[in-house]
Specification:
The protein is of the alpha/beta class. It has 10 helices and 19 strands. The strands form 3 sheets. An 8-stranded parallel beta barrel has the order 1-2-3-4-5-6-7-9, surrounded by 5 helices.
Length: about 450
């Protein structure tokens, strides 16, 4: 291709283990949170020593690890803060600057102002929760000094392109403020993630990181003055998940996103498994690289990318608002549950080339005779039948029933630490593309 710059691939890191997999499976940057101020309080997140000692900070350690692999780290502080949240933020932002964080993600104007005062040389990114839907809003943040704006998820590809055009110089760096776009992951029914349902129904503030995900619960809808009028939510007698959208998946639209000016493509999922992180990052890494090396190969490989993404838990795929308002097929009316193509059964810890045995850590039950596949950071991996399985002490066992049990598995080809073992999930559904007919 010409001089068009590759977009950054930005991956979630809910804890240190997931960060390692995001980094090694191909992310250009990761986003993570400290123990406070992020919108994923249920994720394990990263501890931080408030004395500022780097030896007591998982955030500092994570930044060192990522930077050692050429990967950037952005730290979220994107809650909508109350007065009591502000007292510790300034010192926290100073520590992040000292640790070498590459950016701070915020949504609240007050938090933005505090960050600029406390750590003026720490780049600040504007979160999707700030609901930036037009070029004047993006320009507003640019004039205040924001280095990046993550656009609202409700925008179409044409609206994104108009923002890029208004901001000036396209993708050659002259625009000044980068544009970030969500490309994959769970969609929130509320406007760009700003929601009060959890507060009302569960007493947990989703705008301060404690969302109970009530949009995934089962509901009945009745209009008392319209008896007998059946709305789509009454599809069966068990109720319907009227607020549960399918997952965003834009891997089939990389050319459109790049042409529209997306500098960074963001994957959602800090509370999801390391397996989800690895599968999703690898698929998007391959798709981006394929497109820039050979656009025709990218086009041919689209079914392959979707197949790989379907291996991890998802709720079906949708292109969201990219080509206009989603229709009713973009919602899951009969279930809020995940589906998946494969089960995550183990991670590889080590490999002994002399014996052909791999040290593995169990993550889900499997046994002799099961067919497992090896997922690797690069390449296609391989599939084999579990034929020999031993405890650490060398005792042959018929299966791996114990959580995170360390075992030794005879493998047919060499493997490496951070390879992942998976097997086809029982009753796995057919792969569903997110492609919108006549989208172009």
């Amino acid at each position: 291709m010409g001089a068009v710059k590759k977009p950054e691939l930005l991956a979630p890191a809910g804890d240190f283990e997931k960060l390692r997999y995001a980094v090694n499976y191909g992310a250009d940057a990761v986003y993570l949170s400290g123990p406070r101020f992020g919108l994923r309080a249920r994720s394990r997140n990263f501890a931080d020593d408030e004395t500022g000692a780097e030896t007591g900070s998982e955030i500092a350690e994570a930044i060192r690890y990522a930077h050692g692999h050429g990967v950037k780290v952005y730290v979220t502080a994107n809650i909508f803060a109350r007065n009591e949240d502000l007292s510790r933020m300034g010192e926290y932002f100073k520590r992040l600057r000292a640790y070498g964080a590459d950016g701070l993600i915020v949504a609240d104007p007050g938090v933005f102002a505090l960050a600029r005062e406390a750590a003026p040389d720490l780049p600040v990114h504007i979160s999707t929760q700030a609901n930036n839907t037009n070029f004047m809003a993006v320009d507003f943040w640019k004039r205040l000094g924001a280095s990046r704006v993550c656009l609202a998820r409700e925008l179409s590809i044409h609206e994104i392109k108009k923002i890029d055009e208004f901001m000036g110089m396209g993708r050659d760096g002259g625009r000044g403020t980068e544009l970030e776009v969500f490309a994959h992951g769970a969609m929130c029914m509320s406007y760009s993630g700003r929601c009060l349902l959890s507060n009302y129904l569960a007493g947990r503030d989703g705008n301060r990181g404690e969302c109970a995900q009530p949009c995934r619960w089962k509901y009945h809808l009745m209009e008392e003055k319209r008896p007998g009028e059946f709305l789509p939510v009454f599809e069966d007698g068990r109720g319907a998940y009227i607020l549960s959208p399918k997952d965003l998946c834009l891997i089939e639209y990389l050319p459109e996103l790049i042409d529209a000016g997306a500098d960074s493509l963001k994957i959602e999922g800090r509370v999801k498994s390391l397996y989800y992180t690895a599968v999703t990052v690898k698929a998007y890494r391959q798709a981006i690289d394929d497109y820039f090396e050979d656009p025709d190969r990218y086009g041919r490989n689209k079914p392959h990318y979707i197949k790989q993404l379907s291996r991890a838990s998802h709720r079906g795929f949708t292109a969201g608002f990219l080509f206009g308002a989603p229709d009713r097929d973009q919602h899951n009316y009969d279930s809020g549950a995940y589906v998946r193509g494969c089960d995550f059964v183990a991670v590889v810890l080590d490999y002994d080339e002399n014996t052909g045995l791999a040290a593995i850590e169990q993550r889900n039950k499997f046994r002799l005779g099961d067919e497992v596949s090896v997922l690797t950071p690069k390449g296609d991996g391989f599939t084999q039948t579990v034929g020999e399985l031993y405890t650490e002490e060398g005792e042959a066992v018929p299966g791996a029933p114990h959580p995170q049990q360390i075992l030794r598995l005879r493998v047919e080809r060499p493997v490496a630490p951070m390879d992942i073992l998976i097997e086809r999930a029982a009753g796995a559904e057919a792969i569903v593309s997110a492609r919108v007919p006549d989208a172009r």
